[in-house]
User: Fold this.
Amino acid sequence: MKQKFSELARIFCLSGDVTDYEVIRNGNINATYDVIMTNEGKARRFVFQKINIFVFKNPKRIMKNIEKITSHIADKLEMQGESRDRVLHFAHTSDGKNYYIEEQGFWRVSEFVPNTVTHNSCDDLALLRSAGEAFGNFQTMLSDFDATALYETIPGFHDTRSRIAVFLRHVNEDPCGRADEVKEEIARIRAYRSLACRLNELIDSKELPLRVTHNDTKINNVLFDKDTGEAKTVIDLDTVMPGLVAYDFGDAIRFAANTAPEDEPDLSRVSLDMERFRAFAEGFLSALGGALTPTEIKTLSLGVFTMTLELAVRFLDDYITGDQYFKTLYRGHNLVRTRCQLYLADIIYDKLGEMNKIIADLTGVTF
Ligand code: GN1
Ligand code: MG
Assistant:
């Protein structure tokens, strides 16, 4: 790999030699590496990423989106007297492209934001509050961004209704002969179908506005300052597209307020920590609350349920169709993920009232 990275470093006009690298294991889609370049005794870190072109069919368009989004945010930061470093910077090739295409892949390189760390799980409430603020701010920064200028990188990404419809079609086709084994999980998804499609209906009836949203708000997509713990930069901009505020809030809570990893096989460890819920919600709403309509606020908890159920559907769909989408570490990994998300969806369903109470308390909106 070192030789590969040296070749790429030259292509992306980075000076110095590749002296070390490590695989970054966060993320279920792309291949990501932390690469150290040393120039005249000075070391600099970069993130080299090979895009999964099975998942992202048109990565060039994604890089165009990212260029537009990052420069919009950087300009705003500058206007507010803040450092442009709070947004990702991508390296360019000598012909001015922020990507490089070769036979075996599609590559991009960004600067490693100095002195930052990521967390795959987090029970520190101050960190969660800060992460909530960072994702809320991200949306605020993009509130005046022209959504029509964005290419839809994965059409219907959070269209839960069509995700379920496609999944049920795959169940009927059963290409790998696995549907029988997961009858119970399929039945549980069917039982939740109408509630999971509620956000779709509210989009159809124009009761919920589309905004430019991040759409992949796992806590490990936030870079935290190593010393202060402050959330500094939101990363993984591949799925920034028009969406609902409930998607970003919901996906973040699904991941960060779960007391176990999203692929936990021991379901007795899975629960929704309401302290974590409150902390993230406080940060998120403090950054964004004033801009939200009452209907948006009232559907945040529904977003937590919907994103969790949707992910159960996506994991099970991948299992049924032969594990081609998400990286898997062992046979049945997608099934373990599905069961964990379904179990969590049950818990979230039972806690909808409790979540709404906290949101009402934080916003003054009555349900
Ligand atoms: C994928 O690549 P990563 O881990 O950031 C997926 C998300 C899922 C997540 C589940 C493009 O995100 O939608 O929520 O896995 N990204 C894509 O861990 O499908
Ligand atoms: Mg991602």
In short: Strands lie at 17-24, 31-39, 42-50, 100-102, 105-111, 116-117, 211-213, 222-225, 231-234, 241-243.
